[in-house]
Structures are given as C-alpha cells and as structure tokens.
C-alpha cells in the first residue's frame, strides 16, 4: 500500500474517534476541543488560527461549515446544530449557548473593519472586535447574517435572510434587513 493510502487511513481513524467516541475533553493540534460525542462532517473546515474552538456534547457540525477562530475563541454549547455551509468566525469572540439551531448558509462575524480614515487603506486601519453572544434555545434561519457587537437573547428566532446589527431581546422574533422585531414568542 502506498504512503498516501496509509496516511488517509490513519487520519480517518482519528476523525472517527472525534465523531463517535469522545468521552472527555480532548485537545487537538488545530485548536479544537470537544466535550462528549460530537458529529463533525468530513468536509467541515476547522482552524483555531492561534485561538480556540470549543464544541459541546451532542453538537453537529455539518458539511461545508467553516469555523475560523482568527486568534479569538468560538464556543458552541451542547445539543446545537450548525447546518451546511455556515461560516462562523471567532476574532472578537463568539459564544453560542445550548440547543441553538443555525440554518444553512448563515454567516456570523464577531469583528468589523475600521474604515474611518479615507487617507489610509482599510486593511491598515485594524479591526473592532466587540464579540457576539447567542444565548440558549435560539433558532437562526437560513442565510442570516449576525454582525459584531450583537447579543441574541434566549429563545429568540432570527428569520431567514435577516441581517442582525443590534442586540435582540429574549423570545423576540426578528426579520428583515436590517433585522427588526416582528413578533414575540411570549
């Protein structure tokens, strides 16, 4: 058997352990910690990038998901689902509670470029990093965008395609661009 096939088999055995049999918190060289059994799809792209990514027990990270810590921290709680092709960054800190549902193609970015000086290139002006907090039992609809500095309260629902630029009260239902309260679950 050639070298490449051996390498693929070894990597698959290690990934199988992550997907099905994690019993304790395990640290991986690319900045990932899992707690309990988690499911990470084979095509998910996970990069601690000098930071840390923590995924709670019974959480599912589906195909095509991109998790990039960018020197910050991404924490995903227990019993969550991150559905296909979501992008979650951690530069300013991203904390996701328990039982959160994140639908396909959602983008969550806890940092923002500073662009106040027109005489300097945007890339040289740095970033503002306030962070994002998503509390327990939140449902984020397909294609939503969650921007830096936002806190989404417990039990809230974010409509598909919404762009969330301000914090959301618990049990609120928001939709639109920019997202506005359209109802409540109470």
Tell me what the structure shows.
- This protein is mainly beta and 186 residues long.
- 10% of the residues lie in helices and 34% in strands.
- It has one helix and 23 strands.
- Strands 3-6-9-12-17-20-22-23 form an eight-stranded mixed beta sheet.
- β22 (172-175) and β23 (180-184) form a beta hairpin.
- It is globular, with a radius of gyration of 18 Å.
Determine the structural class based on helices, strands and strand pairing. mainly beta
- The helix content, as a percent range, equals under 10%
What is the strand tally? 23
Count every helix, treating DSSP H or I runs of 4 or more residues as helices: 1
Mean pLDDT rating: 86
Contiguous uncertain segments of 5+ residues:
14-27
Our Rg estimate from Cα atoms comes to 18 Å
Describe the secondary structure blueprint for this structure:
Elements: H1 3-20, E1 26-28, E2 32-34, E3 39-40, E4 45-47, E5 52-55, E6 60-61, E7 66-68, E8 73-76, E9 81-82, E10 87-89, E11 94-96, E12 101-102, E13 107-109, E14 112-113, E15 127-128, E16 132-134, E17 139-140, E18 145-147, E19 151-152, E20 157-158, E21 163-164, E22 172-175, E23 180-184
Parallel strand pairs: 2-5, 3-6, 4-7, 5-8, 6-9, 7-10, 8-11, 9-12, 10-13, 11-16, 12-17, 13-18, 16-19, 17-20, 18-21, 20-22
Antiparallel strand pairs: 1-2, 14-15, 22-23
């Amino acid at each position: 058997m050639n070298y490449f096939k051996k390498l693929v088999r070894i990597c698959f055995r290690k990934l199988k352990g992550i997907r099905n049999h994690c019993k304790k918190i395990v640290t991986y060289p690319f900045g990932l910690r899992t707690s309990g059994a988690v499911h990470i799809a084979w095509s998910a792209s996970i990069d601690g990038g000098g930071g840390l990514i923590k995924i709670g027990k019974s959480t599912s990270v589906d195909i095509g998901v991109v998790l990039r810590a960018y020197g910050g921290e991404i924490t995903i709680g227990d019993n969550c689902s991150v559905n296909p092709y979501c992008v979650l960054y951690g530069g300013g800190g991203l904390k996701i509670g328990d039982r959160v549902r994140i639908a396909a193609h959602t983008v969550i970015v806890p940092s923002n470029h500073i662009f106040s000086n027109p005489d300097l290139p945007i890339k040289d002006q740095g970033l503002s990093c306030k962070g994002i907090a998503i509390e327990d039992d939140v449902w984020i609809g397909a294609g939503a965008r969650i921007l830096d500095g936002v806190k989404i309260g417990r039990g809230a629902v974010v409509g598909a395609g919404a762009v969330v630029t301000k914090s959301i009260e618990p049990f609120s239902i928001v939709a639109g661009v920019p997202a506005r309260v359209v109802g409540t679950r109470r």
